[in-house]
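Lab channel / #folding
Pinned by the channel admin:
"Please post every new chain as: sequence first, then the structure tokens as a reply. Keep commentary short and put observations after the output so the thread stays searchable."

First post following the new format, from NK:
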Amino acid sequence: MNTIGLKIKMYREHLKMTQEELAQKVRVGTHTIEKYESGEHIPSTQTLLKLSTVLDIPASELFDDERITNDSILNQQV
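Reply from TO:
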């Protein structure tokens, strides 16, 4: 289960924002947002920060146990 994707979708819908609108604001393609929401891809730490700003939520709200792993910790230190 990809809780990051579900959270992105939930907060986006709460703001009555389309995938296209979110993609424009985060500066990614609509297809990318679709992949995040479906769980096909997990956003980078930088993209998660952009998403949290656009969705007006703390970045920590998007993180889940799967995301806070070796890769995300290493990426934050780069």
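NK: Residues 44 and 71 are 10 Å apart (CA to CA).
TO: also worth noting, Residues 3-14 form the longest helix (12 residues).
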